[in-house]
TrEMBL record:
<dbReference type="GO" id="GO:0042802">
    <property type="term" value="F:identical protein binding"/>
</dbReference>
<dbReference type="GO" id="GO:0072380">
    <property type="term" value="C:TRC complex"/>
</dbReference>
<feature type="repeat" description="TPR">
    <location>
        <begin position="159"/>
        <end position="192"/>
    </location>
</feature>
<feature type="compositionally biased region" description="Low complexity">
    <location>
        <begin position="318"/>
        <end position="331"/>
    </location>
</feature>
<dbReference type="Pfam" id="PF00515">
    <property type="entry name" value="TPR_1"/>
</dbReference>
<dbReference type="GO" id="GO:0016020">
    <property type="term" value="C:membrane"/>
</dbReference>
<dbReference type="Pfam" id="PF16546">
    <property type="entry name" value="SGTA_dimer"/>
</dbReference>
<dbReference type="GO" id="GO:0060090">
    <property type="term" value="F:molecular adaptor activity"/>
</dbReference>
<keyword id="KW-0802">TPR repeat</keyword>
<keyword id="KW-0007">Acetylation</keyword>
<dbReference type="GO" id="GO:0006620">
    <property type="term" value="P:post-translational protein targeting to endoplasmic reticulum membrane"/>
</dbReference>
<dbReference type="InterPro" id="IPR032374">
    <property type="entry name" value="SGTA_dimer"/>
</dbReference>
<comment type="function">
    <text>Co-chaperone that binds misfolded and hydrophobic patches-containing client proteins in the cytosol. Mediates their targeting to the endoplasmic reticulum but also regulates their sorting to the proteasome when targeting fails. Functions in tail-anchored/type II transmembrane proteins membrane insertion constituting with ASNA1 and the BAG6 complex a targeting module. Functions upstream of the BAG6 complex and ASNA1, binding more rapidly the transmembrane domain of newly synthesized proteins.</text>
</comment>
<dbReference type="InterPro" id="IPR047150">
    <property type="entry name" value="SGT"/>
</dbReference>
<comment type="similarity">
    <text>Belongs to the SGT family.</text>
</comment>
<feature type="region of interest" description="Disordered">
    <location>
        <begin position="277"/>
        <end position="345"/>
    </location>
</feature>
<feature type="domain" description="SGTA homodimerisation">
    <location>
        <begin position="5"/>
        <end position="64"/>
    </location>
</feature>
């Protein structure tokens, strides 16, 4: 790889790192940037530690200087061509046929009719909104969201598009966004009882939803899982054969009703566990990436007898439940061995 290309890649990575730290981005946007940084590092063979590739000017400064010499040129937005009278009539016929298909619950056919109407007259917000309703009936909530967005772009005062957007977002469990669109729908149609009811139900769901960051007693498990040092230590710890033996023995002893107190064929005491953790954590921890944090989180509950964690948004919820179960098992094993007293420092 040529040196200038590596230096440019490093400048881009440096800019993305600054955005991660000070850009005020949403969690999803931050994760996307982290993935982008990893891809750039892999593709160009550079990392944020390669300070020798840095240049005296930051990338935003270079861009700002170049942009000042080239003023932004306005590009006219092409308006969709108005349909001919014949196309408009045919589009309405297709929409009506789509409505009939909705009545008999032939939703896939309704999607097809609305799509053909859109081809003939893409500037009609009603066609998109109707197709969004058909998509929702088919469980294609992402498609419904896209069509509602198009309808709103065409007609920002179309209340039904906001209401159907709220329904689709609620089905995707994006409750706060759904509330926003329901409220917007009510601004445009204050007497609509359906919007009022849907808003009330969604707000109640938000109140009942468990906090994504706090466990029992206010323990911030999500914050702990996002701590690079902890996740690196956890990954090393769970890959240590001694620790795996300890955890397997603890769980086995806690589940065995006939185990005699003090009887043990493995070092089950907490001091041995801590010692193993110190040995595993010796030396500087490896940099934790998003994937390594997820792998380490899964590793925390992957010892023998513990089912693997699912991937995706349910991972944190499953980890909390597994952590609570393991805490109960370890506490029971400790009491059976006569160690029920003591306190947490």
């Amino acid at each position: 790889m040529a040196e200038p290309q590596k230096r440019l890649a490093f400048a881009i990575i440096e800019f993305l790192q600054e955005q991660l730290q000070h850009g005020g981005l949403s969690p999803d946007a931050q994760e996307s940037l982290e993935v982008a940084i990893q891809c750039l590092e892999t593709a160009f063979g550079v990392s944020v530690e390669d300070r020798g590739l840095a240049i005296s000017q930051k990338l935003p400064d270079i861009f700002e200087a170049a942009a000042a010499k080239e003023p932004l040129q306005s590009c006219p937005i092409a308006e969709p061509a108005s349909p001919t009278e014949e196309d408009a009539v045919e589009a309405e016929r297709l929409k009506t046929e789509g409505n009939e298909q909705m009545k008999v619950e032939n939703f896939q056919s309704a999607v097809s009719f609305y799509g053909r109407a859109i081809e003939l007259n893409p500037a009609n917000a009603v066609y998109y909104c109707n197709r969004a309703a058909a998509y929702s009936k088919l469980g294609n909530y992402a498609g419904a969201v896209r069509d509602c967005e198009r309808a709103i772009n065409i007609d920002p005062k179309y209340s039904k598009a906001y209401g159907r957007m709220g329904l689709a977002l609620s089905s995707l469990n994006k409750l706060s966004e759904a509330v926003f669109y329901y409220r917007k729908a009510l601004e445009l149609d204050p007497e609509n009882e359906t919007y009022k009811s849907n808003l009330k139900v969604t707000e109640q769901k938000m109140k009942e939803a468990p906090s994504p960051t706090g466990g029992a007693g206010g323990f911030d498990l999500a914050g702990l899982l996002n701590n690079p040092g902890f996740m690196s230590m956890a990954s090393n710890l769970m890959n240590n054969p001694q620790v795996q033996q300890l955890m397997s023995g603890m769980i086995s002893s806690s589940q065995s009703p006939v185990a005699a107190p003090g009887a043990s064929t493995a070092p089950h005491d907490l001091a041995s566990l801590i010692q193993a953790g110190q040995q595993s954590g010796a030396g500087p921890p490896a940099p934790a990436t998003k994937s390594s944090r997820n792998e380490a989180a899964a590793g925390l509950c992957s010892w023998p007898g513990r089912p693997p964690l699912p991937q995706g948004k349910d991972q944190l919820k499953s980890l909390r439940a597994a952590a609570a179960a393991s805490h109960s098992s370890l506490g029971k094993a400790h009491k059976e061995r006569g160690g029920g007293g003591g306190h947490r420092a």
